[in-house]
Amino acid sequence: NLTPLKARVHSPLKWDERYAQYLQRAGFLDIVVQVVGGLPPMDGPLLTAMVNRWRPETHMFHLPFGEMTITMQDAAMILGLPLDGQPVTGIIQNENWRDMVEMHIGIRPPEPEGGDSSKKMSGVSSAWLREHFDVCPQGANDEVVQRYARVWLWHFVSTFLLPDAAGNTVSWMVLPILGQVWENIAVYSWGSAALAWLYRQLCEACRRTARDSNVGGCTYMLQIWIWERMPVGRPSRLRVDPWHRDDARPTFYHVWKHVRPVRGNPDRRYRAYTNEFDVLTQHQVEWKPYDREQLSHIVFSPTCYRDRELWRCTTPMILYYVVEFHMPHRVMRQFGRMQPCPPLELSTSQQLHSIDRRKRYKENDWRLKHGQYLLLWQNKQGCDPKGGPYWRPNNEYIRWYCTSTRTKVKPSWTNVPIEYAPSDDDADIADAYDTVTRHGTQPERAPLHDYMGQQLARLLNEAGVIMEHAVGEGDGPLRAFAERVRKSCRRMAMRMNCMMSSDAHDGGNVQGTSLGSRRTALATTPRAATPSTAAGPSRRSRGKEPASPQESKDSEGEQSEDDDPTYGEELEISHDAPPVTQTQGESSQ
């Protein structure tokens, strides 16, 4: 069985107020003072449940009601770092990198054990930096203070903004930029670089299967994005501290400083979150969290809004050898705008994922190697984030989405009509789902939710067909009753996020699709997917069409005759990778 991923997080070096003036000049002070003030608790199971839904070919999270993703808007609002500016790139020269580090910080990193200079090429250990630069000496002159401030920023960028998924190494890759004049550091697009690195780490993490797997990138940014937009795993917010600094302003990171952490067994929380995401509806999502009236009294950092014309910009984001595409045109609802259907098909150039600095031990000038993407970045077109028609219920988009990709991680265990159960006696109705559940350790709601919604949608459509033909004397009460049943079925199915209002009355079953899962066969193109009427054996597959915003009232009664069933730890059908016909091609590397 797969286990939750572990987020690579590091505490910053000890803070010294003497660093503030320099980090302000570098453009980092807003986020730095918030991180120094305290880090929110990290919820690895929640991050894992979201990573399961990441698709490398679109850079989207696939949810029951459509695509969502973390965009440059979110990076700006949470981190308060610039989006516009020079791309974070340049020369990576593996040979003699210790000389370069010594030039910038005044101390030479230790040679690897055994004298093999090919080892430990990626950077220095966090412990080594703490040993030499954790505390700036009292009475130090300005040159020494600046050196310590530069090392502090280097450690922060490498372990908070751009951590990888392996070990406690502080990469030297960004040090040549951080070694420049402080004001020069501020002209780089650090917000897009952090987002590009997070995208790359998500593309890698969604394929990991080992029990000790990690996820890199700025996971604090990702976690706050989830908390802002979705109720799954969201902790109780205790208070928002008043802001007292004059040299910096808060971002939305500050709002989540004091929370009551969600506790419990990580494996159980992971399964619970997976089920909760599967039954989440579009009405339960905060689509525009940064416009909340209750936060209107907070004066946020101007950098949060400075580059708003880039929030909806489709462009490559660059961090040295990493190039990842920003695709906001697929998630226009996150900007309160109408979603074109189908979205414009643009490649995320997954072949770029094969470019890994670890495979290259000679000098690489990524400004030349990625010249075509640098040109696209320089020629990117900004736009008004509030331009375009406002969002309205769009059944066309939902229909396209549910017939083009997988939408469920925990699918129904069967598509057999419920009336074919072997007995009408409540005590006798049992099946493979109940058997697996009985021997499990944790209830899982999503498969039953999916099945019941599927059956309600089927009965609704059958009732619509019958109503067209059931005419005759004395059938008024019967027709009225059938119409009430039909309306109730429709509302229950829509409430369970399993159909749209436009699906009703077409005489056909509502067919669903299943979502490819983390560490199975995710990395494929969704356009090649085919809907499956039977639940595929995917660890994280999901199916059935989401609800429309229209008609979402509850009907009388409950969703099934078995109000309080016992659920299982895992369904057997969801343990393995889906069949080839239910995935979408070859995985990217």
Task: Give a brief outline of the structure.
33% of the residues lie in helices and 7% in strands.
Mean pLDDT, to the nearest integer, reads 79
Number of helices: 19
Query: What is the straight-line distance between the termini?
Result: 23 Å
Beta strands, count: 13
Secondary structure class reads mainly alpha
User: So what's the overall shape?
Assistant: elongated
Sketch the major β-sheet.
3 strands, antiparallel
Widest sheet, order of strands: 2-3-4
Low-confidence runs of at least 5 consecutive residues = 504-589
Rg on CA atoms, Å: 26 Å
Share of helix, binned: 25-40%
Total domain modules: 2
DSSP strand content: 5-15%
Distinctive features:
33% helix, elongated
Please outline the helices and strands.
Blueprint: E1 6-7, H1 20-25, H2 29-37, H3 44-51, E2 54-55, E3 60-63, E4 66-68, H4 72-79, E5 91-92, H5 97-105, E6 123-125, H6 126-133, H7 142-161, E7 169-171, H8 175-178, H9 182-185, H10 190-205, E8 214-215, H11 219-229, E9 236-239, E10 258-260, H12 266-278, H13 302-306, E11 315-319, E12 322-326, E13 364-365, H14 366-369, H15 371-378, H16 395-402, H17 432-438, H18 445-469, H19 476-495
Parallel strand pairs: 1-8
Antiparallel strand pairs: 2-3, 3-4, 5-13, 6-7, 9-10, 11-12
Helix pairs in contact: 3-12, 4-10, 18-19
